[in-house]
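Figure 3 (text version): structure tokens given as input.
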């Protein structure tokens, strides 16, 4: 997927909840082409894991590229499948496997207490020729990991 982040002026952050995806779905296609949303994936009602959230996101955003992150909200991430996605062992293998199935998803590199798994995750996405996003939420804690990952890349 050829994509230049400079082509986008707006990166709205949305959760994969019905109301937010409904609003996204009702945007004109021409408006959708001008934004690159950050969609925080969580459990969809009556389903486990993030696959249903991804399906609903693709449906709402007409399969255009979007940035995908994992929720940290306990109500939407407590089951075993969500915990497997957040498992940092083997460089977040389950997260990588899931998002690599979708060409239009730009994954957020998941932070870890293991610097090695964080950096390997970024390198493995890069080896798959995928664009990635580092989403810094805690500047003092996250910036150092991002610098190490960028240096390794």
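Below: residues designed for each position.
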């Amino acid at each position: 997927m050829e994509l230049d982040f400079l082509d986008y002026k707006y990166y709205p952050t949305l959760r994969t909840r019905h109301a937010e995806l409904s609003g996204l779905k009702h945007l004109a296609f021409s408006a959708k082409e001008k934004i690159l949303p950050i969609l925080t994936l969580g459990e969809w009602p009556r389903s486990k894991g993030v696959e249903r959230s991804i399906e609903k996101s693709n449906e709402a955003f007409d399969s255009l590229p979007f940035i995908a992150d994992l929720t940290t909200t306990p109500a939407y991430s407590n089951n075993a499948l969500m915990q497997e996605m957040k498992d940092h062992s083997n460089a977040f293998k389950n997260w990588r496997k899931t998002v690599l199935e979708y060409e239009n998803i730009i994954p957020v590199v998941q932070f870890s207490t293991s610097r090695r798994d964080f950096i390997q995750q970024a390198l493995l996405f890069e080896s798959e020729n995928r664009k990635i996003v580092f989403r810094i939420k805690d500047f003092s804690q996250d910036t150092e990991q991002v610098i190490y990952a960028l240096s390794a890349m």
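The first helix runs from residue 18 to 25.
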